[in-house]
Design brief:
Elements lengths: L1 H6 L2 H4 L10 H11 L26 E7 L1 E2 L9 E2 L1 H13 L3 E2 L2 H8 L8 E8 L3 H14 L4 E4 L17 H9 L3 E4 L12 E5 L5 E5 L2 H23 L5 E3 L7 H9 L4 E3 L18 E2 L5 H15 L5 E3 L14 E2 L5 E5 L12 E4 L3 E3 L2 E3 L4 E5 L8 E10 L2 E11 L16
Parallel strand pairs: 1-5, 1-12, 2-3, 4-5, 5-6, 6-7, 10-11, 13-21, 14-21
Antiparallel strand pairs: 8-9, 15-19, 16-17, 16-20, 18-19, 20-21
The structure holds zinc ion.
The site of zinc ion has 5 residues, from loops.
């Protein structure tokens, strides 16, 4: 108990040292979407390529909140919040049109596999406190919000750091059975970097301060990062793919161990709106504390101002829409048929589809809601060597746009072999 209290206030002081260097995650998902089949360089090709992935809104933003204990009487304002203040924040998310999504939906969106609302939030609870089960969960149920529990395994009731206020394995199992996402937060909740002072439990329950290096450190860090994951997975029969770094203290070596052991995402407490390209191994969360009510307000305003008002446009790739002619293709007619398939975008608002062609402006394109196909047969010869197309439509109140360019061979209609000219 004493140790839990001693460790947690440090959270505040130590949480600002995060780096966000890597862009691995975003580049790999872009590669994945670039691997869909390319249409052949024939303007009137009948077979459209199959859409292998849904089009996700890459302009969506996600706030991730991190809560600790919910108590009526605040004694540790750095990690506590009253149930009333907590519920008011959950209500505010709803009132402001911010959709609370599950952690796994966030990861699916980051991989380009699933769409999420343009303004979303993920709610997480750290450290495994009884009040998260008894107080927070009923409030989350009331709003129908999914959430994630980040557990450090020795802090569960019965563990070497699991005092009277700690959550029990039975409570975690109950949450699991009701769809709550349970993820890892190390074994003993300490600074994970080599050579930093940690407390080690020795036989007999005594705890000693020490600094580990070399093989001893490697053995310890394995248990913190990998052992805690395995214990949660085995004890609860779940898959753990997220790791919340205690105090946000880690480095490349810790990241590498986490990546190699199957974690897909690592979380810090450096709050910032998460975007499609945010690095997966330093996802910032807003730590919400009783003594800093502005943190929540500022976070909510961040995404309210940047995507509010309906002016934002989600850009989708021409390839995903199986455009014809394809982006970068060269056709040998000045009277091409222009086509795109909007079905990967989802439900399209009737009458919102607009097709613009450079040199022509808005053209009277034909939209077939059944197939999702927009088409326009150019009737006036295109004069330029390259033609740009902009297609726009509204889906779920949001404007979605795709831009692409194709070339027109000189002496069109009578030319010889078409030469594709990739522009990227
Ligand atoms: Zn923690």
């Amino acid at each position: 108990m004493i140790i839990r209290f001693a460790i947690l206030p440090l959270f505040l002081a130590l949480n600002l040292s995060m780096c966000k260097k890597q862009e691995n995650a975003s580049s790999s998902s872009q590669q994945a979407s670039a691997s869909s089949p390319t249409p052949v360089a024939t303007p009137l090709a009948a077979a459209s390529p199959k859409i292998t992935k849904p089009v996700v809104d890459q302009t969506a933003q996600v706030l991730i909140f991190c809560y600790h204990r919910l108590v009526d009487k605040i004694r540790y304002p750095g990690t506590e919040i009253t149930p009333a203040a907590f519920e008011a924040e959950m209500k505010e998310l709803k009132d402001r049109g911010i959709t609370v999504i599950s952690m796994q939906d966030l990861l699916a969106w980051k991989k380009g596999e699933k769409n999420i609302p343009p303004r979303s939030a993920v709610v997480t609870f750290d450290d495994g406190w009884k009040s998260q089960y008894e107080v927070a969960w009923p409030i989350m149920k009331k709003y129908g919000y999914p959430f994630t529990m980040f557990i450090y395994t020795e802090g569960v009731r019965g563990g070497s750091l699991g005092g009277g206020e700690a959550i029990t394995w039975e409570q975690l199992a109950d949450m699991r059975d009701n769809g709550v996402d349970i993820e890892a937060h190390s074994a003993t909740h300490q600074d994970l970097r080599e050579g930093h002072t940690i407390m080690l439990a020795s036989t007999g329950g005594k705890r000693t301060k020490t600094k580990l290096t070399g093989p001893q450190y490697e053995q310890w860090i394995q248990n913190e990062v990998v052992g805690s994951k395995q214990l949660l997975e085995q004890r609860l029969g779940i898959k753990v793919n997220c790791f919340a770094v205690p105090f946000g203290n880690y480095n490349e070596h810790v990241k590498e161990i986490a990546r190699n052991s199957g974690y897909e995402a690592m979380f810090t407490v450096y709050g910032q709106p998460i975007t499609f390209t945010s690095s997966m191994d330093s996802i910032g969360r807003y730590a919400i504390e009783a003594n800093k009510p502005k943190v929540f307000e500022d976070a909510v305003k961040m995404i309210a101002t940047s995507t509010g008002g309906g002016a934002a446009v989600a850009e989708v790739g021409a390839k995903d829409l199986a455009t014809q002619p394809a982006d970068g293709e060269t056709v040998h007619t000045a009277l091409p048929l222009i086509k795109a398939n909007l079905s990967p975008i989802g439900a399209i608002e009737p009458g919102s589809v607009q097709l613009r062609v450079s040199g022509l402006g808005v053209v009277p394109a034909n939209y077939d809601p059944k197939s999702g196909t927009v088409s326009y047969q150019v009737t006036q010869k295109l004069h330029e060597k390259s033609c740009s197309v902009i297609i726009s439509a509204k889906s779920q109140g949001k404007k979605v746009e795709a831009h692409w360019t194709f070339g027109i061979e000189e002496g069109a209609a009578g030319g010889t072999s078409p030469i594709p000219t990739p522009k990227k």
